Amino acid sequence: MFFLRMIFRSFSRQFKRRLLIAVTVCLSATVSVAMLGVVFDVGDKLNAELSTYGSNITVQPKSDAVISDLYSTDDAAGAAGTSDSTGGSGTTSDPTSFLKESDAKNIKTIFWAFNITNFAPQLNIHANAGVNGGSGQVSIPIVGTWFNKTLKLDTGESTVVGVQGMRSWWTVQGAWPKDDTDQAMIGVNLADKLGVKIGDTLTLTKTTASGVNNVQPVKIVGTYDSGDDAANSLYMASSVAQTLADLPDSVDKIEVKALTTPENDLARKAAKNPAALTSEEWETWYCTAYASSIAYQIEEVIPGSVAKQVRQVAALQGDVMNKTRAVMILMTALSLVAAAIAVANLMAASIGERGNELALLKAIGATDGAVSRLMLAETAVISLVGAIIGAGLGSGVAQIVGQVVFGSGITMRPMVFVLVFVLLAITILIASVSSIRSILRLRPAEVLHGR
User: Fold this and answer.
1) 3-state class of 125 per DSSP?
2) Are strands 234-237 and 138-145 parallel, antiparallel or unpaired?
3) Radius of gyration of the chain (CA)
4) How far apart are CA 400 and CA 406, in angstroms?
5) How far, in Å, CA of 381 to CA of 232, rounded?
6) In whole angstroms, what separates CA 127 from the centre of its chain?
């Protein structure tokens, strides 16, 4: 009871200084909880944000992948969709190796199916185009794909996939085409070249490998500006493109957008040769959402395919995420250092002002340990109040950061609060050491006599 009365009296006399300690700890806790909360949740947020700018895995036939590796070129399938935009007969041939479009849905059956956020098959071909029923010899690149297709999975679930969810940076005028219809969307560069506008009809003609001359009219329902060579192409439903080219159930490329874990040495080793992994390494790699392990699992469910991660996208995701985490951890460390310095100074000033009181306690029989515990108890109670308030404020700040930066809330894990409270406890203890040492140097007789 005696010590409790002393705590109450000292708190009343030095309310302002105690309030400053509480505010300091509160601010440090707010910053620490907010930053660490974001750090523990930033991986999926950043991957989701960065993956809006295109796919990070491409799937193509094995033969195309071999050619690409031998000649160090971009994948053959992608070339057809971005080259040959000058009209005429064209210099880029249509693909000769294909995957089955019906196998594409198998991507959602792999171990990391829930990390696959979107995918879209492509059939890249060329055809001659005439505007509004006219005939012409202008060869244009065509991409047959899914726009916003609802797939019924074998599990009974359904999912919506397609390029509409993978081209968020496109500037679109008009509407997106509907799947399995004769609607099409044309790039702004190609539209200017052909003099085509929304509402016009393009008549596409193509001579197939069997010598049949197919004709397919398509209605332009929208234009898009991709900011790159893709604006020279015409996008249409894959089923219609397959009919035009007489290539049923055929695609030459599948773009996949997946949430992945940044690469490390294990992922890089596996990407070179999965067979070189030990059984323990294999299990760790296969059960971690690396881009290479997801690509490997895609190859398992799509016959005759090779899945590759887009290195530039994967490297960007890992680099940005690591730098973002480093900045937030640095801010947390700086806030803890600032709190330690402030608390140490405030405690030293408090002990200086309360020298007579502490000397009196020692004079009437209190040991150095008892007096030290008294000061630590005061500081601990005040710091705990500040830390609890700061934890609540930090959670709110983390949600604001999540909404402003990522457009969604931050999932606050219990580990964040435990870690912050432990770090603050260590910080306060370290800050109190120098102040406690000054208590041990107090000489009651000298202090009480004003010396």
Assistant:
1) strand
2) parallel
3) 33
4) 10
5) 68
6) 38
Report the alpha-carbon distance of residue 343 to residue 17 in Å, rounded: 10
The dihedral region occupied by 348, where left means phi > 0, alpha psi between -120 and 50, and beta the remainder, is alpha
pLDDT by residue (tens digit) across 167-179? Answer: 888 999 999 999 9
Residue-level length of the chain: 451
pLDDT tens profile 133-168: 555 568 899 999 999 999 988 878 889 999 998 888
Return d(Cα 277, Cα 271) in angstroms, integer.
10
CA dihedral 13, 18, 20, 25 (to 10 degrees): 180
Q: What are the structure tokens assigned to 267, written together?
A: 């992922």
Q: Tell me the pLDDT of the chain averaged across its residues.
A: 80
Q: Span 195-213, mean pLDDT?
A: 90
Residues 3-14: tens digit of each pLDDT? 555 555 555 556
Q: Which two tokens stand for residue 93?
A: 């041939």
- Give whole-number Cα distances, 164 to 53, 148, 179, 196, 415, in Å: 12, 6, 11, 22, 38
- What burial class does residue 185 get, using C-beta atoms within 10 Å of its C-beta: 0-12 exposed, 13-18 middle, 19+ buried? buried
Q: Mind listing the pLDDT tens digit for each residue in 310-355?
A: 755 555 555 666 777 788 888 888 888 888 888 777 777 766 666 5
Residues with Cβ within 8 Å of 104's Cβ and at least 6 positions away in sequence, in order, are 119, 121, 251, 254, 302
